[in-house]
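User: I'm new to structure prediction. If I give you an amino acid sequence, what do you actually give back? Let's try with this one:
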Amino acid sequence: MADTTWDPPSPQVRELIRQIARISSNPPPDWLAEWNRTVLQSNPSVAADPELAAAVSRANLANLLFWSTANVREPGAPVPANTGPDPMNVSRELVRRGFDASSLDFYRVGQGGALRRLIAIAFDLTDDPAELREALDICSQSVSAFVDATLAAIAAQIDLERDELTRGTHAERRETVALILDGAPITRQRAESRLGYTLTGPHTAAVVWSTQPDVDLTRLDRTVEQLGRAGGATRPLSVRASTATRWVWIPGGAPIDTTVLLRSTGEFPEIRVAVGSTGRGVDGFRRSHFDAVTTQQMMARLNSPQRIALFADIQLVALITADADRAAEFVSEVLGDLESADAELQFSVRTFIDEQCNTSRAAARLYTHRNTLIRRLARADELLPRPLAQSGVAVAVALDVLRWSGSRGG
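Assistant: Good question. You get back a string of structure tokens that encode the predicted 3D arrangement of the chain. For your 410 residues, that looks like this:
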């Protein structure tokens, strides 16, 4: 535990700390993005969960602003724990995913990144060695004590959240689903009794979640209902995975009508739906869920603007984009200047390939004249490193990556 007492700063250093805090309260977006990326990379389990990763990033920024604001107001004075909504929300989300206080090490990584930022700011403000030494010593002790206090508050909240979760009415269903997904030796009959859901026959799993932390929970529940209807089921199984996430299973195996689902949930732009494969029995229940989670992770990783994604549509893209840097290299190498072409041209090429390179069918689907499409394809050949006739499969995959990543693909 860091010492929470230190000598007050001299008048000059007091003003220096105030300036450091004022600048740190408005972090540059590129620095903030890199800081959050470093923090999340320190815990792959957290980084792989879109909702939890977003909550951690919000808490990081909230803590930085909390400390900075306190030091603008009273430079060098001890800063109390941040028990605001963002850090406390992290504790709630950690518990709902089975984490405990030992998983909070990413805060220490954030602490190190913040201190490096404060040091850089200080060196930009003064070159006086004595002032720098005093200011940075106080800032280091202050940040360390602040993080210690905040972590203690989060750990205490985790204990409270765990007690509440184990008493909650949804705890039994959540526990049963966890046992099935882990392959634990629970009988099918017992699992069905606890879930109120038949595990024989086909199922299609989905993950429904919100991109906003303060989601209206009725929107999530209504989306689950509409998802069931779009899959031909009136009562899907829904489990509360976290505050803003539902795990869903739709019985029957009917295809999900995404057009109907998009239309019925159009008033909920912050809600996302990732749909897994269709599987049969307990093994299918499990596999379909993992496919839905893979789809969700890809949507989050690419910051996709698409509201609904099917595993069948993104399976190849998910594999390719698992390494973001390699995926970007692949797209650039395959598409060349077509990567930055207008959306209409990219969409025309994608449609042409989807129609097995049949110009007439593609033109009809695009509602355009066949000669117009031929001119667009000729333009695409000018932009591509290799002619479309020789690289159609790779071009289709690269354009699909752009589509799901929110780039300018149609």
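You can read the tokens as a compact description of the fold. Here is one thing that stands out. The first helix runs from residue 11 to 24.
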